[in-house]
Design goal:
Shape: elongated
Radius of gyration: 33 Å
Order of helices and strands: EHHEHEHHEEHHHHHEEHEEEEHHHHHHEE
Oligomer: single chain
Bound molecules: zinc ion
Strand order of the largest sheet: 2-1-3-4-5
Number of domains: 3
C-alpha cells in the first residue's frame, strides 16, 4: 500500500469534563504523531468543538472532511478514536461507503487500527461503532474507565482547578510557584506544621491557584500529593509516573510520607495536656479558645490564624484558670441539682479506665512503629499492616469509649465533691476532663482589666444545670 500524501486528521471535543481533559489539542498532537510515525503526510486537519457525535447535531468540519474525501482530495484519515469519528452504526456505514468509493483504504486511530479495505477492518469498525452507540447510554462508566486510563497513561486529571506549581495545561512547571512548593516541603519535613505554613503564605500574600485562602488542608493536600513528585495517582493510589515533571525529589516525597505517617500514628488523638480544651470561649468574639504553649508556659488563646478565624484578642495562662474551674466543678458536684442531673447516667469506671489504658499502650506502639519506619529500621511493607491493625483496634476502643461517655453517669461522684477533691490531683487529665464536661457546659474568659495577678472574675462559667 502506498504511503498517503494527503491524509486528513479529524478531532472532536465533546462537552463532558473528561473530554475536555483529553481536549482537541491532545487529540491533534497524538494524531499528528501517529501520522508522522507512519510517514503519512497530513494535508488537512478538521476540528469540531463541543459537538457530540451522538446528539445528532451537525458537525460542520466532519461534513467538510467527508466532502473532501468524496472529491478525492484525501487518501487517508487519522482520528484519535473511532468514537471521535462516529457513534452511530449508520454513520459508520456512510463513512465506509464514501471511503470505499474514493479509494481511501487507510483509516488509523491512535487507540486501535482499522483498515476499511478488508472485511476484518470493516467488521472491527462496526463493532467499535456499535460499542460507542451503546456506551453513550452508560456515559458515567465510560468516563470512569477513561479517567482510569488517563491516570495509567500518566495524563493529568480532569479537575477544574489548576494545580499549584503548574501552568493551566497541568503539565508545565510554573517556576515561581515551584520554588514555593520546594520551600513548603522543606519546612514541612523539618517539622513545621501545615497550619504554620498556611499562615505564613497568607501573610506573605502568596496566591493559591484558585484565589482562595491558604488553609492547613490546602497545604497538606498539596504536599501529600503524588503530583508534585511527578507521579500520577488515581483514587488515592499512585499508578505510575506522570507526563509532567516533579517539583520535589523522590527522596523528599519519602520524607514527607514519613512525616505523614508519624502524624497519623501519634496525632490521631494527642495525649491531653490541657484540662479545659474545647470548654473555654473568647470573651471578645465568642470563639473557642485553643490550647497553645509559649515556651514552657501553657496558655489558652483566641487564635486568628487561617484555620480558627478568632479575633486573637484573648490570651490567658492555663494553670490559674484550671485551678479555679476545678475547684468550682468539685463544689458544683455537691449541689443537689447536679445529683439530679447525673441520675440515670452510669459510668462503668473500671471498664473505662481499662479501655483508656489499652488505648495508651496501642498509641505508644503505633508511635514506636512510625519512629522505626522513619529511622529506616522497618520497611513500608512491614509497617503498613502493623499500623493498620493498631488503627483498627484503636477505632474499636474509641467506639467503646464513645458509648461509655454517651451513657456516662457520674452518679458515684455527684454529691462526693469533698472526696473527689482529694482524689482529683491523682486522676488522669482524661478523667478530670470527663468529670468537668459532665458539669461545665463552657466558660467564657473575659478580657483582663488590670495587669498582675490573675483575676478570677474574668471566668464566667455556664453550668450544665
Ligand atoms: Zn476572640
Amino acid at each position: 500500500m502506498h504511503k498517503p500524501h494527503s491524509a486528513a486528521i479529524y478531532a472532536r471535543i465533546s462537552s463532558d469534563p473528561t473530554g475536555q481533559a483529553l481536549g482537541v489539542q491532545r487529540q491533534l498532537e497524538d494524531c499528528r504523531k501517529l501520522a508522522a510515525d507512519r510517514g503519512w503526510n497530513v494535508a488537512a486537519e478538521y476540528v469540531d468543538n463541543d459537538v457530540s457525535a451522538y446528539s445528532g447535531k451537525r458537525r460542520p468540519e466532519y461534513e467538510r472532511m467527508m466532502a473532501d474525501v468524496r472529491d478525492g482530495l484525501r487518501d487517508a484519515v487519522v482520528v484519535y478514536n473511532m468514537d471521535r469519528l462516529t457513534r452511530r452504526p449508520i454513520e459508520l456505514e456512510e463513512f465506509a461507503q464514501v471511503c470505499e468509493a474514493a479509494g481511501v483504504r487507510q483509516v488509523a486511530t491512535v487507540t486501535a487500527d482499522v483498515d476499511l479495505g478488508n472485511d476484518d477492518g470493516l467488521f472491527m469498525a462496526r463493532i467499535f461503532a456499535a460499542f460507542a452507540a451503546k456506551e453513550s447510554g452508560r456515559k458515567s462508566e465510560r468516563l470512569r474507565r477513561k479517567a482510569r486510563q488517563n491516570a495509567e497513561q500518566g495524563r493529568p486529571g480532569g479537575g477544574a482547578n489548576r494545580p499549584f506549581g503548574y501552568e493551566a495545561d497541568k503539565l508545565t512547571v510554573n517556576p515561581v510557584e515551584a520554588v514555593i512548593v520546594r520551600e513548603m516541603a522543606q519546612r514541612y519535613i523539618a517539622g513545621e506544621s501545615a497550619r504554620a505554613i498556611a499562615a505564613d503564605l497568607e501573610q506573605r500574600e502568596v496566591p493559591t491557584s484558585s484565589g482562595a485562602a491558604w488553609r492547613s488542608t490546602t497545604v497538606r493536600n498539596l504536599l501529600h500529593s503524588a503530583r508534585i513528585a511527578g507521579l500520577r495517582s488515581h483514587n488515592g493510589e499512585v499508578v505510575g509516573p506522570a507526563m509532567w515533571d516533579g517539583i520535589i525529589t523522590p527522596a523528599e516525597r519519602e520524607q514527607i510520607l514519613a512525616v505523614v505517617a508519624t502524624k497519623t500514628a501519634t496525632g490521631r488523638r494527642a495525649p491531653r495536656r490541657y484540662l479545659l480544651s474545647g470548654m473555654l470561649r473568647c470573651g471578645k468574639c465568642g470563639g473557642k479558645l485553643f490550647s497553645s504553649a509559649r515556651g514552657t508556659e501553657r496558655r489558652y488563646v483566641c487564635l486568628s490564624g487561617p484555620d480558627h478565624r478568632g479575633c486573637g484578642g484573648i490570651t490567658v495562662t492555663a494553670p490559674p484558670v484550671e485551678e479555679w474551674l476545678s475547684a468550682a466543678i468539685l463544689y458544683r458536684l455537691d449541689t443537689p441539682d447536679m445529683e439530679a442531673v447525673l441520675t440515670g447516667r452510669y459510668a462503668d469506671d473500671a471498664h473505662h479506665t481499662e479501655q483508656m489504658s489499652k488505648r495508651t499502650t496501642l498509641e505508644a506502639r503505633a508511635r514506636e512503629l512510625a519512629e522505626m519506619f522513619a529511622a529506616g529500621e522497618i520497611s513500608r511493607r512491614e509497617w503498613i499492616p502493623a499500623r493498620d491493625s493498631i488503627e483498627h483496634q484503636l477505632t474499636a476502643i474509641d467506639n467503646e469509649l464513645q458509648r461509655l461517655t454517651g451513657s456516662n453517669t457520674l452518679e458515684q461522684i455527684a454529691g462526693h465533691g469533698a472526696a473527689l477533691r482529694e482524689e482529683w490531683p491523682g486522676m488522669t487529665l482524661e478523667r478530670q476532663a470527663l468529670i468537668a464536661r459532665a458539669v461545665l457546659d463552657y466558660a467564657t474568659i473575659m478580657p483582663a482589666t488590670r495587669a498582675g495577678r490573675f483575676d478570677p472574675t474574668r471566668i464566667v462559667p455556664v453550668w450544665v444545670v
